[in-house]
Write a structure and sequence with these properties.
- This protein is mainly alpha-helical.
- It is built from 18 helices and 5 strands.
- The chain has a 3-stranded antiparallel beta sheet. Strands 1-4 form a two-stranded parallel sheet.
- Helix 5 packs across helix 16 and helix 7 packs parallel to helix 9.
- It is globular, with a radius of gyration of 25 Å.
- It starts with a helix and ends in a 7-residue tail after the last helix.
């Protein structure tokens, strides 16, 4: 794929994402799900109304900024309500989330490109992210999870850009990486897992580097057979280059000097060991902590009930007393192990009407069973096949990493790490480590949690399935190329099929049941 088509593809992904998030944004002239908190909190900053917030305040600042800007735009005011505490149009407290969410597929694609420099991988990663349901739903309402994800992803992207540069430019991008990670934590505390993923992949790189620095270690060694293979490849490359020069062969761009072993072919992850502990602690420690601290200043100026330390104690107390992770606490409570296979999504909005022409029922209970002929449902639910295929791809990556250690063990009876890791091995390490960093901390959480808490981890699942499909499409085997095309088609078809419950479009009872494949989805 050349640059022209890559740019066209990225613009198309963004336009698709933007259109889906803005179309019918004012459809429900009410507060949907946690908009009863976040939209009100955003408006409270504009009306200078003190309030207690159970999360860091950055997302509510963003929603408040959106309300202020939207209120000064001379359109978007066909429908209004006073549910936020002021007379507002639904557009005003939703549009900035919709715009922000539209950029998430682009940022995911940018990360994919920085990981591999493969344009097809990047386009697929962006497209799959744009075709997910829970990200679409969360982007269309005044909720906070979009901001955790985009700031955390920006932190990772800036880190990869820093690794791709040197000296002052590296410092420049590292500063922005620290700001991104700090902003993610400043939205919700679980944004910290994005930062922990960055530290873990850095530690993994140093461990690999140190293992290769001690080739005579009894526990670890570089595989002699692999070293011989690397030596043979280096010699073969040298001979080819010498032969090319002797023959005076030239291509349109001149003599090719590309070598898989050359530093110029390294991807950013292979430069992780160029960052020392002091750089990590400053750029990805002190700067995020500083950003997180200053984010609190406007809120603490508004509500002086608690100081900086006391407000954190109150937030922790609030979450510890939310109750256990069971349906008795909330019907949509879903433990962490239910998220990857999406066994318990949740309804953000559900109302029924007698006909499509009837005004949307925005308040009060649904009609009695059998009376409503039209169902309006907004389900916080991912694209099922995207999630299921993605989990399979993530397991494939885990298996690939394990096999690279197990096979040498079986052959040579010692643990072995290749002297040089391939680009795909680095990608696998990056995706598996970051997925685990964003999922496994929830194992010990006993409070009621929901499927939207999985959003920080599932973005790495999207990258995993995009990587797998990209490898299939680039394969010499026709069967694998057909598999890649089939997976892509199924993901796109599934997104279209479940789109009505992402956008809250009217459905007949049969149409609704057709999309609720399992009782646990309802």
């Amino acid at each position: 794929m050349n640059k022209k088509w890559f740019r066209i593809g990225m613009v198309s992904v963004f336009i698709l994402s933007l259109a889906l998030r803005f179309w019918g944004l004012e459809r429900f002239n009410t507060l949907v799900f946690d908009e009863v908190y976040f939209a009100k909190f955003g408006n409270n900053y504009l009306t200078h109304t003190p309030f207690f917030n159970a999360h860091p305040p950055l997302s509510q600042y963003m929603i408040g900024i959106g309300i202020w800007i939207g209120s000064h735009i001379p359109f978007w005011h066909d429908t209004v309500n006073g549910l936020t505490g002021s007379l507002r149009s639904p557009w005003t407290y939703r549009w900035l989330n919709a715009l922000t969410g539209s950029f998430i597929p682009v940022v995911v694609a940018a990360i994919a490109y920085q990981l591999s420099y493969r344009r097809t991988f990047a386009i697929l990663a962006g497209l799959f992210t744009a075709c997910d349901g829970i990200f679409l739903v969360e982007s269309r309402y005044a909720l906070s999870n979009i901001y955790i994800v985009i700031f955390g992803l920006l932190g990772h992207w800036f880190l990869l850009l820093a690794l791709d540069n040197q000296n002052r430019r590296r410092s420049f991008w590292l500063v922005f990486a620290g700001i991104g990670f700090g902003a993610s934590v400043g939205t919700k505390w679980n944004g910290l897992w994005f930062l922990s993923g960055a530290y873990l992949i850095w530690i993994a790189a140093w461990v690999i580097h140190l293992i290769h620095s001690f080739p005579n270690s009894k526990l670890f060694f570089r595989s002699p057979s692999l070293e011989q293979e690397v030596g043979d490849r280096r010699q073969a490359v040298t001979e080819r280059l010498a032969l090319s020069e002797a023959e005076g062969s030239r291509s349109e761009a001149g003599v090719s000097t590309y070598s898989p072993l050359s530093t110029s072919s390294q991807t950013p992850l292979q430069n992780l060991t160029q960052l020392n502990i002091f750089q990590m602690l400053f750029y990805l420690g002190i700067i995020p902590a500083f950003i997180y601290s200053i984010i609190w200043i406007p809120h603490l100026q508004l509500d002086k009930t608690y100081g900086f330390i006391a407000v954190h104690q109150q937030i922790l107390k609030f979450h510890l007393h939310l109750g256990g992770n069971s349906p008795n606490v909330h019907p949509y409570c879903a433990a962490w192990y239910k998220w990857p296979l999406m066994t318990r999504p949740m309804a953000y909005y559900y109302q029924t009407a007698e006909s499509i022409s009837e005004p949307l029922p925005v308040m009060g209970p649904p009609l009695p069973a059998g009376a409503g002929q039209v169902i309006y449902d907004v389900h916080a639910m991912g694209n099922p096949f995207l999630w299921w295929f993605g989990v399979a791809a993530m397991l494939f990556l885990v298996g690939m990493l394990v096999s690279q250690a197990v096979i040498p063990w079986l052959k040579e009876k010692r643990f072995s790490i290749p002297a040089t890791l391939s680009v795909d091995t680095w990608i696998a390490l990056y995706l598996v480590i970051n997925y685990a960093a964003n999922l496994l901390p929830w194992v010990k959480v006993t409070r009621c949690v929901f499927i939207y808490h999985y959003m920080c981890a599932v973005v790495f699942v999207f990258l995993a399935i995009a990587w797998f499909v990209d490898r299939c499409l680039c394969s010499y085997y026709q069967q694998l190329r057909a598999l890649g095309v089939t997976i892509t088609f199924i993901i796109l078809a599934a997104f279209i099929f479940w789109m009505p419950i992402y956008l809250g479009l009217p459905l007949s009872p049969n149409g609704y049941k057709l999309r609720m494949w399992f009782n646990s989805w309802i």
